[in-house]
């Protein structure tokens, strides 16, 4: 081999020789995500690893895309494909969540249900734009403003749309403080925004312990498809409330959720390749996602207005917007918009009720979709067996 | 059936299911809260301080409070307008 051949061989073994325009554009998109995460602080815990995963996946010859057999992120992606990581995130969310405000004012669960209207109007919009019902369901759940639920459902019903759905869900969740307030102000009067709600009653510890068990039984009996999500959410909450599993509670709400977030976000980022992301579907999903958030917010606020009328002015409609999940940011937005009208009005704890209800509501909405369009492998047991079979088969090769 | 009509039907049905499930949860919570109401933890009995056991420091604080009140009354001022800076035993 002469010197010229050696130089040529080295040049052809680098990524520069094989980089394609689509990969170049995806690298730019990954840098935008990193910019938004680091300098604009938009959901940095998620957008940063997603952006970096996208960057690695699009560097030529890196073998870091989720579809690259034997690559590192291919293994991480098992956790998404087989619905392992989103339920583990829910375990951490359950450990972090205080259901107290919801238990003290259970009617706020209805606000969490009303905000799911965003999911279904988006479903109709997505079908009108040419998506299949399964794809439209996975897109619609963006309106639930719940990242793990969106990923869980997309992985089951439309895995090819996972990346744009996850990006839309997390991007709009970070934009909740910008998207929601104008809608909230538009749909409420100053008099309604001034309503001061009664102080929440304290709840006995026994009720806090029984609630996660009872709600798991009821929801999973009615919608078995959502068992992994609801089961883990409520188990995490039981760790928190039972008082005898301090170490498990501590681990779930700190180290476990952090580790799983890294794995999940990198796996999602690695699915953002030019072939899957640079499509018209992505643009449609981004637009539909925004519509989903707006309609969900409006649905919550309008139902809040209904509760204001029924309760004869005791419910502040602003807490309705928190029904879109996005814990606790949506509740903070209710508090902030309420204080714009009256600085002495503290809505945060009242908004936490519909906010937590939104988490349950979006999981229930996902359960309805799985009951309608799922392949029947509803329970975690089946998916776990499927995952084990796949791993065993890949080890045997 | 056209997909759009099917999507509308599904949406309508799904919203009913969501309200039904969450409505049942509301009922369960109401029953739980009704039968298991919150009761305040029994407060441990406060430690009573016998005059003999009282420390010198708390006695001094009581004396300062008493002097403060008497001075305020005598001078016709509000208690917060008087600041005792130094006490010397005679």
Task: Provide an overview of this structure.
The complex is a heterodimer of chains A (397) and B (90). Chain A is mainly α and 397 residues long. Chain A is built from 21 helices and no strands. Chain A has helices spanning 3-13, 21-38, 44-58, 72-81, 85-96, 100-104, 109-114, 117-128, 133-140, 147-157, 162-174, 176-187, 190-193, 205-222, 227-242, 246-270, 274-277, 280-310, 329-341, 348-373, 380-396. In chain A, helix 11 packs across helix 18 (280-310). Chain B is mostly helical and 90 residues long. Chain B is built from two helices and no strands. The longest helix of chain B has 33 residues, at 3-35. Chain B is elongated and about 100 Å long. The model of chain B has no long low-confidence stretch (mean pLDDT 80). The A-B interface holds A 102-103, 106-107, 109-110, 112-113, 116-117, 119-121, 123-124, 127-128, 132-133, 136, 201-204, 206-207, 210-211, 214-215, 218-219, 222-223, 357, 360-361, 364-365, 368-369, 372 and B 3-4, 6-8, 10-15, 17-19, 21-26, 28-30, 32-33, 36-39.
């Amino acid at each position: 081999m002469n010197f010229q051949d050696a130089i040529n061989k080295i040049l052809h073994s680098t990524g520069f020789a094989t980089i394609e325009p689509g990969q170049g554009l995806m690298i730019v998109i990954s840098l935008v995500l990193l910019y938004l995460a680091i300098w604009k602080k938009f959901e940095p815990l998620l957008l940063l690893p997603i952006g970096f995963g996208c960057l690695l996946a699009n560097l030529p010859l890196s073998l870091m895309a989720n579809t690259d057999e034997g690559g590192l992120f291919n293994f991480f992606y098992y956790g998404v494909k087989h619905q392992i990581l989103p339920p583990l995130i829910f375990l951490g969310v359950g450990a972090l969540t205080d259901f107290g405000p919801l238990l003290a004012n259970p009617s706020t669960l209805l606000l969490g249900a009303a905000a799911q209207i965003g999911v279904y109007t988006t479903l109709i919009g997505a079908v009108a734009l040419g998506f299949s019902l399964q794809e439209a369901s996975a897109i619609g759940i963006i309106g639930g403003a719940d990242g793990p639920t969106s990923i869980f459902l997309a992985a089951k019903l439309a895995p090819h749309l996972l990346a744009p759905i996850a990006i839309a869900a997390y991007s709009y969740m970070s934009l909740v403080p910008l998207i929601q307030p104008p809608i909230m102000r538009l749909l409420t009067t100053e008099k309604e925004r001034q309503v001061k709600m009664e102080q929440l009653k304290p709840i006995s510890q026994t009720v806090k312990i029984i609630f996660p068990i009872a709600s798991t039984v009821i929801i999973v009996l009615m919608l078995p498809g959502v068992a992994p999500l609801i089961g883990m959410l409520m188990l995490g909450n039981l760790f928190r409330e039972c008082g005898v599993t301090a170490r498990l509670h501590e681990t779930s709400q700190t180290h476990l959720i952090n580790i799983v977030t890294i794995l999940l976000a990198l796996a999602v980022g690695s699915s953002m390749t030019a072939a899957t992301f640079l499509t018209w579907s992505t643009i449609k999903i981004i637009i539909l996602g925004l519509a989903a958030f707006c309609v969900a917010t409006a649905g919550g606020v309008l139902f809040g207005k209904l509760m204001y009328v029924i309760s004869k002015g005791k419910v502040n409609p602003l807490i309705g917007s928190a029904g879109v999940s996005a814990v606790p940011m949506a509740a903070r937005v209710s508090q902030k918009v309420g204080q714009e009208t009256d600085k002495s009005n503290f809505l945060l704890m009242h908004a936490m009720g519909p906010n937590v209800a939104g988490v349950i509501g979006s999981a229930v909405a996902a359960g309805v979709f799985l009951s309608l369009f799922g392949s029947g492998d509803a329970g975690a047991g089946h998916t776990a067996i499927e995952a084990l079979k796949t791993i065993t088969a890949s080890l045997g090769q | 059936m056209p997909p759009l009509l099917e999507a509308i039907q599904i949406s309508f049905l799904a919203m009913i299911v969501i309200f039904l499930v969450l409505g049942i949860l509301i009922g369960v919570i109401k029953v739980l809260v009704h039968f298991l109401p919150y009761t305040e933890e029994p407060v441990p009995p406060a430690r009573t301080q016998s005059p003999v056991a009282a420390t010198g420091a708390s006695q001094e604080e009581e004396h300062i409070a008493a002097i403060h009140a008497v001075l305020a009354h005598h001078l016709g001022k509000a208690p917060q307008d008087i600041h005792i800076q130094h006490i010397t035993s005679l």
